[in-house]
Write a structure and sequence with these properties.
homodimer; about 375 residues; alpha+beta; Rossmann fold; Dna Ligase, domain 1; D-amino Acid Aminotransferase, Chain A, domain 1; four-stranded parallel beta sheet; 12 helices; 17 strands; about 25% strand
């Protein structure tokens, strides 16, 4: 019997799970809200990820259910587990990717290095935190943030007064130390329900306006302590939180040589897109193997360097066909990934991967190829 | 507007075109006879490739139409071209992959090295041919043969008497010299309507019972004369026959050091499956680029050696899931490709690719991984 992997959410991550699902002889079913979403080829049901009936009906057709995003409410996930659905990662693990306060609390228990932080329920608590850590702090809503949304750097609680006003009951905001970092890193790991784990090389990520723009794999000058620390952190988190599937740990490398955990994602992640063309087993194939509790594949790089550059919609990026053809002509070595999404300014609509022996040349090709889509 | 590539036929070649179509931001539509076929995820219409109405209705939804197999009748192809459908490769080119007598005639005109051959319409003509070339000959039906079907080695015309009996009108059989070969090679090339071409390294292919079983890329000991001759032959054929898309040229390397053309396939081909994991641009991505007249990608190998071993259905190969899990555990470096087909003895149901630095070790891993599916 062909095994069916169900993916809740029809975005580009579900789309990019489709090629390895086909390779491995699997079927992939997607629950999406709209028929035109990025993963449209695999959509088997239309419905909302917040509708327990729709999600359960979808899940009953699948051997395992996993996710394109982290927005499925815990109440809906509970309906699935109560019905005996095989959900990977487990809702208890996924909670830590959904709730930043829960995540910080659990990471502190595990002894994982994190920026200074506090749970703040009032402007007074936040102002006290700011005073403790100098002149400013990062404030995050516990839930719902992504790509820089729900995150604000402030020097006074007054700058997030409306977030405090929106808090109800026992809700709180997360206040974090403003970390002066040398660079950002990301460490990906896959873990199966049986407990097998494999890490990819730690990568360097570059963000612009809170959105990932480039990834270099492996992170330059990370061999030795940094790569070991990053892999150890990811393993500690994956095991400590009982994560299954792919886990991405976003990290700060600080000016004073610490490695601190910034964010978690329990799914394939932008920081791992390089692996589609740059590693023996991509994050998408590994995620499928992991959620099915199949043995994991080697993550060995296929070249000394892989560089990923995101393609963001620009003001004039309507002619994707033309841009693709021009970029292909100029850069026959580039691997293009387009997500079938309408280009809107700043929206991630694809990425370019380039493998190479020389880092500077590889970066130049990847930027050059992605640049054609900005016209 | 997202471009739509239409593929006639729902087999594993259409299935394997789907991942690169997704990568490149394309839509892929498949016309298949049955909803359970290998490329089911991309099936948009059910219908026969011999039904001109069904094929035309399908084709009108597509920006370009290409093929999973070579069995679409010329009469049906004429309906498409008469209606202005963009068909790649062109029917005039495809004819040479459909009709072995037409192919041999045209290759002879182009001066491409081929085994001795003759068009034979009677047992007497065949017996004369056999006498001319020694004690035996290869006899082929002009149309309809694949994977060893429609091919027979004979020492007397009596051994194909029923084929002669089936001939009507001006039909004929193809008689060919029985070539004593050292090994078989295959040369793949892609060509766009604009005339751009790119070749992959010439590969060595091993057949068992007329079916491809292993491919080694590049062919060992082919650097220099052999690789140059093979690439020149493929380029001459691609240009001379006005082929677009991917062309596979099956070759004999003879005991007396000649390189002779055996068969042609105008589509991605088993001899190129290694390229999915072993080349910067796979045959499937290149075929899509070519039929859309997009610039072609580099075909650079990703490792010194890539070995492909086919997975054939065996007498006990019902438990594919178990075989896959066991093979993955033993060989985490192997890339598995399963086609979603019911295993039947001798049926191609998948393949394994392995890349490596050492040929003997790479062969051993690929055979070992594929071997799990034979139990």
């Amino acid at each position: 019997m062909t095994r069916v992997v169900g993916v809740i959410g029809g975005g580009q991550l579900a789309r990019m799970m489709t090629p390895p699902a086909l390779n491995l002889g699997l079927e992939i079913y997607v629950l999406a809200q709209n028929s035109y979403e990025s993963a449209k080829i695999a959509i088997s049901e239309l419905g909302s990820h917040t509708d327990p009936d729709a999600v359960l009906a979808f899940a009953r057709e699948c051997d395992v259910v996993t996710f394109d995003h982290e927005h499925v409410p815990q109440e809906v996930l509970a309906v699935l587990t109560d019905a005996g659905v095989n959900v990977q990662p487990h809702p208890q693990a996924l909670l830590f990717a959904q709730d930043k306060l829960a995540m910080r609390t659990r990471l502190a228990e595990l002894g994982v290095p994190v920026p200074g932080w506090a749970r703040v329920q009032s402007p007074a608590e936040l102002d006290a935190f700011i005073a403790e850590y100098g002149s400013r702090a990062v404030v995050k809503t516990a839930r719902g943030g992504y790509d820089g949304k729900g995150v604000r750097v402030v020097s006074s609680a007054a700058e997030v007064s409306e977030w405090f006003a929106d808090l109800t009951g026992d809700d709180a905001l997360l206040a974090e130390e403003f970390v002066t970092f040398r660079r950002e890193l990301a460490q990906q790991i896959a873990r199966t329900p049986s407990g097998e784990t494999r890490v990819w090389p730690v990568v360097e990520t570059v963000q612009e306006n809170g959105v990932c723009s480039e990834v270099i794999s492996p992170a330059p000058n990370a061999a030795g302590r940094i790569e070991t620390v990053a892999a150890d952190i990811a393993l500690t988190i994956a095991q400590g939180l009982d994560v299954t599937g792919v886990l991405a740990v976003e990290l700060f490398e600080t000016e004073d040589d610490r490695v601190l955990v910034n964010e978690l994602a329990m799914r394939p992640h932008n920081s791992g897109h390089w692996s589609i063309d740059g590693a023996l087993t991509s994050q998408f194939e590994q995620h499928l193997r992991a959620v099915l509790d199949l043995p994991l594949g080697l993550t060995t790089p296929l070249a000394p360097w892989t560089v990923m550059v995101n393609i963001l919609g620009g003001p004039l990026s309507g002619d994707l066909d033309g841009a693709l053809a021009r970029a292909m002509r100029e850069y026959p070595e580039a691997k293009f990934h387009l997500y079938g999404k309408e280009p809107r300014p700043g929206r991630k609509i694809g990425h370019v991967n380039v493998v190479g022996d020389d880092l500077a040349a590889t970066v130049a090709v990847a930027r050059g190829a992605a640049g054609f889509f900005q016209d």
